[in-house]
Design brief:
With 347 residues, the chain is an alpha+beta fold. It folds into four domains: 2-121, Immunoglobulins (Immunoglobulin-like, Sandwich); 130-227, Immunoglobulin-like; 237-284; 289-343, Roll (SH3 type barrels). It is built from four helices and 24 strands. The chain has helices spanning 2-22, 223-227, 237-264, 267-284; strands spanning 26-30, 34-36, 40-47, 57-60, 74-78, 81-89, 96-99, 102-105, 110-113, 116-121, 130-135, 137-147, 152-162, 176-185, 188-198, 203-210, 215-222, 289-292, 297-299, 308-311, 316-319, 322-324, 327-332, 335-340. Strands 1-3-6-5 form a four-stranded antiparallel sheet, with no helix packed on it. A four-stranded antiparallel sheet has the order 12-13-15-14. The chain has a three-stranded mixed sheet with strand order 2-10-7, with no helix packed on it. Strand 14 and strand 15 form a beta hairpin. It starts with a helix and ends in a 7-residue tail after the last strand. Mean pLDDT is 82; it is low at 4-22 and 230-240.
């Protein structure tokens, strides 16, 4: 009989603990059962009876190597319940990973969520053209193809993805590549992936693993198509001809309206004349020339982490093709690239 009551007592204790956990004011709403190496994945915390006017703080165990990619969670409100989602990345080649314990507090309470263990599985059998990216969605928003040197092309892919590890992107068949301007905002991530290929290459294809469809999908870039489009890095003879047409047309209208004003003295023609002259000056002023110091680096892209095309071997003066932040775009020995303002001559 004593054994019977002991069993009843143990059952009631664990049953009450289960009910408490189900009705806990703060709990994990979603933790994946398994992830792949390098996968970016969400972990969501639910808070009941949440007042959005009150500030709340989260702190994962600072001693743990596993930390969220961003410490500010994505917040979703549903009536009086709030969901806070953090995104992590399975960076390490282990059989499992541990989401560290999480302390949640505000001025009225403090709550501790215990650590969570997640299995790490091997990546599904990858195709040869796998670029190392896993994503719930992967979109190429812009493609630019420009001359890199006399025998190679520089290709830029502007990518917008969801829940993706774009920093790991690498196409095996390219000569040189890298990621620039990577920005995360919750699940969304944007970046520019650039690579160098021989100018003779017309198409290039790669695959990524779609986390929603649970399969590899292929993306194909028609390099030849984009090479023939108007790009910010090159000025073709056709474009130069069009620039001349615009210049001569605008100059014709300036002469025309000058004559109209001379014969009619109508102020409307004077206004149009002044406006046309201002446009002409703004559009066709000579481009700025800059002095560049010997030893300056010519960068592939106007970013701090961009790779270097070459070193400038002597002090030179060049025409500025484009300016972006503290970078100037020039052409040097047939190669277009960017120099930093700190490499310009001081005098």
């Amino acid at each position: 009989m004593l054994n019977f009551f002991w069993r009843i007592g143990v059952f009631l204790f664990f049953y009450s603990q289960t009910l408490f956990a189900l009705d806990a004011p703060i709990s994990y709403s979603y933790v994946p059962k398994f992830v792949y190496k390098n996968e970016v994945f969400p972990v969501t915390i639910a808070i009941k009876h949440f007042n959005p006017k009150e500030s709340i703080h989260f702190e994962f165990d600072p001693l743990s190597l596993m930390q969220p990619l961003e410490f500010k969670p994505v917040v979703t409100l549903n009536k009086d319940e709030a969901f806070f989602t953090f995104y992590f990345k399975a960076k390490y080649d282990l059989q499992s990973l541990t989401i560290p314990s999480l302390t949640i507090w505000n001025r009225d309470f403090s709550y501790l969520l215990n650590e969570q263990t997640i299995l790490v599985k091997k990546t599904p059998k990858t195709p040869q053209n796998y670029a190392g990216v896993m994503a719930a969605n992967f979109l190429i928003t812009l493609v630019r193809v420009n001359p890199y040197d006399s025998s190679n092309s520089l290709v830029e892919l502007h990518i917008k993805a969801v829940q993706a590890n774009l920093e790991n992107m690498h196409i095996n068949s390219v000569k040189e590549d890298g990621i620039e301007a990577l920005k995360r905002n919750g699940a969304s991530v944007k970046a520019i992936y650039y690579f160098v290929v021989p100018a003779s290459v017309k198409k290039i294809a790669f695959s990524y693993y779609n986390l929603l469809q649970k399969k590899f999908l292929t993306k194909e870039i028609n390099i030849a198509f984009y090479k023939n489009r108007l790009e910010f890095n090159t000025i073709t003879p056709k474009e130069l001809s069009f620039e001349k047409v615009k210049k001569y047309t605008l100059f014709f209208f300036i002469i025309l309206f000058a004559l109209m004003f001379y014969y009619t003295r109508d102020k409307v023609y004077l206004f149009i004349l002044l406006l046309s002259t201002i446009i002409f000056v703004l559009f066709f002023l000579p481009k700025k020339r800059i002095c560049i110091n010997e030893g300056a680096s010519l960068y592939v892209l106007p970013t701090q982490k961009s790779s270097v095309s070459l070193q400038i071997t002597q002090k030179i003066t060049k025409t500025v093709l484009k300016k972006y932040q503290n970078f100037y775009k020039i052409e040097y020995h047939g190669i277009t690239g960017w120099v930093k303002d700190e490499d310009l001559c001081k005098n």
